[in-house]
Design brief:
The chain is α+β, with helices and mostly antiparallel strands and 160 residues long. The chain is built from 3 helices and 9 strands. The strands form 2 sheets. A 7-stranded antiparallel β-sheet has the order 5-4-6-7-8-1-9. α1 runs antiparallel to α3.
């Protein structure tokens, strides 16, 4: 099993204890707010969101992952487009589900056959795959993301 943390955060800017030291946006709701002297535009948010979705899809495609299943669904407010707990997310719906999670519309883990995609607070993504997925790592980096070997804090080892 290969487990990664994929994020927009440069590991070189972390303190010794792992705290990220730069003022950064962490949510869709931050669009229009200023961070480190730069206002987050909708276009920049969408560019980064797209990079996360594309990187996740690249890992799953290279690993030949089947459809992932919705686990631990938490719906925030009235979200008629939220998936159903235990349902399978078809490849065609994967991007939309990831976008909704990143926009805090609902939250869930996506898992199947030992593989997973988990989204954490503050725009962290955790990916678990059976193979090293070296091309996906290169692709994520080319999209401006950082890939680190890392355990997902959302993994439930008792589930298998």
């Amino acid at each position: 099993m290969h487990r990664f943390r994929v994020s927009k955060y440069d590991p070189a800017l972390r303190t010794v204890s792992g705290v990220y030291g730069k003022d950064e946006w962490t949510s869709f709701s931050d669009v229009g707010r200023s961070f480190s002297g730069t206002t987050l535009s909708r276009e920049e948010y969408l560019r980064v969101e797209s990079a996360y979705v594309e990187a996740a899809a690249a890992f799953l495609a290279e690993d030949r992952a089947p459809e992932l299943r919705v686990v631990g669904l938490e719906i925030r407010g009235d979200r008629p487009t939220a998936p159903v707990e235990g349902s399978h997310v078809a490849r065609g719906a994967f991007a939309g589900v990831c976008q909704s999670i990143l926009r805090d519309e609902f939250w869930c883990k996506l898992e199947a056959d030992g593989r997973f995609v988990h989204f954490g607070w503050d725009f962290y993504m955790y990916v678990g795959v059976l193979n090293p997925c070296e091309r996906a790592i290169v692709r994520a980096k080319s999209l401006g993301l950082f890939v680190e070997t890392f355990e997902s804090p959302y993994i439930d080892e008792t589930r298998g």
